[in-house]
Amino acid sequence: MIEIGEVKKITKSGWCTVRFPRKTACENCHMCLKPKDEMFVELKLRNTLAAKEGDTVSVEIGDRAPLIASLITYIIPLILVGIALGATAWLDSPAASLGAAGGALLLGFVITMIIDRKLKGKKNFTPRMFAIIKAEQIDTEIEN
Fold first, then answer.
1. Which of 48, 50, 107, 122 is spaced 20 to 30 Å from 12 by Cα?
2. Is 95 exposed, middle or buried, given 0-12, 13-18 or 19+ CB atoms closer than 10 A?
3. Which is more confident, 95 or 144?
4. Measured between alpha carbons, how far is residue 132 from residues 4, 5, 56, 79, 106 in Å?
5. Check: CATH 3.40.50.970 for 1-61+127-144?
6. How far apart are CA 87 and CA 37, in angstroms?
7. Is 82 left (phi over 0), alpha (psi -120 to 50) or beta?
8. Which is nearest to 16 in space by CA: 51, 62, 60, 61?
9. Taking the model in full, what pTM does it have?
10. Are 77 and 46 in contact (CB under 8 A)?
11. Which of 23-37, 91-105, 112-126 has the lowest mean pLDDT?
12. pLDDT grade, residue 128 (50/70/90)?
């Protein structure tokens, strides 16, 4: 998947902040925790192309990365909560079931964080700057 955004900020440590317009699919998602009136998403990337503030860049990430990330984020905690509720169903204590479900949810988030750290830096899961786009290229891409 390739997205086009504008470099908004450059740091001395070799990182930059790239701003992307939000897609129509973002309207009801709220995953980025941005208000509806902010129609952009920002991403911090390594500045591998020596881009400058105001440059338009294309950023690439593996096609399946968003799907896999969503599955990891939602499915692992959900499965663990289901297991915890199933394991405590025979108990006649809602408090025990609630405690087990809460503990399983917390464990699911910890496992998700560990997986996230392992996937960071992997080629298909880490967004990277692909190219700096000139103004005339942007006009051509908009027309197509």
1. 122
2. exposed
3. 95
4. 9, 10, 6, 42, 41
5. no
6. 44
7. alpha
8. 51
9. 0.60
10. no
11. 23-37
12. confident
Secondary structure element (H or E) that encloses residue 106, with its range: helix 94-119
18 strand-pairing partners: 7, 43
* CA distances from residue 83 to 68, 70, 89, 106, 112 in whole angstroms, order as listed: 21, 20, 10, 13, 17
User: 56: closest CA among 10, 4, 14, 2?
Assistant: 4
Q: Which two structure tokens, joined as six digits, stand for 135? A: 């103004």
Length of the chain in terms of residues written: 144
| Domain range list for the chain | 1-61+127-144, 63-124
CA angle 118, 120, 121 (to 5 degrees): 115
